[in-house]
Amino acid sequence: MGLDMYLKKGKRIPGKSIKQIEEIEDEIYYGDNKELLDEYKDYIIEIKYEHIKTTLYVLLNEVVYWRKANAIHNWFVINVQNGNDDGRTYEVKIEQLEKLIDTCKTVLNNLSLAKKLLPTKEGFFFGSTDYNKMYVKELERTVKILEKVLKNTDFDKEYIVYTSNW
Question: Which 3 state secondary structure label does DSSP give 160?
């Protein structure tokens, strides 16, 4: 148990909201709904697990996973989820990812700004709220990964979404 956080990426489906995309994904996940699999074949990502001879079908594929990085989660809650810490999925805009990278870099350059710019968040199984070595490593990792996400995403044709659970 703990705070698990994800950035996912998928092709934009014209006329479909994130909520609708999640509903479609729920219906195609195990490959049982052949009609929807065919209808959305141009948007589906197949995830093959050879060792258990299983294929899963998704529209939004995980590109970043964090565990108990509660300062990063808190940033998403405030800046993307309008303060709603509800475990739902939210679209993340390019400007928001750029802002998070800039905020992380600012804090990494001056750790005394951490409590103001990128504060930790207490929560059930959210992990440490200390501004320690692990906090710094998570910020460094976040910058490195998000810079790659920005470089490899066409925001006109693809979604980036954030979701969490605990």
Answer: strand
The reported pLDDT for the residue numbered 2 is: 87
Q: Which residues face 9 on adjacent strands? A: 61, 160
Return the amino acid letter for 71.
Answer: A
pLDDT for residue 127: 86
Whether this prediction's pTM lies above 0.90 is answered by: yes
Task: For residues 91 and 75, give the distance between their C-alpha atoms in angstroms, rounded to a whole number.
Answer: 14
Contacts (Cβ under 8 Å, ≥6 apart) of 30:
56, 57
pLDDT at site 122: 86
Residue 46 C-alpha from the chain's centroid: 19
Kindly list the distances between the CA atom of residue 87 and the CA atoms of 3, 22, 68, 72, in Å, as whole numbers in the listed order: 10, 13, 14, 14
- Cα–Cα distance measured from residue 128 to residue 70, given in angstroms and rounded to the nearest whole number: 8
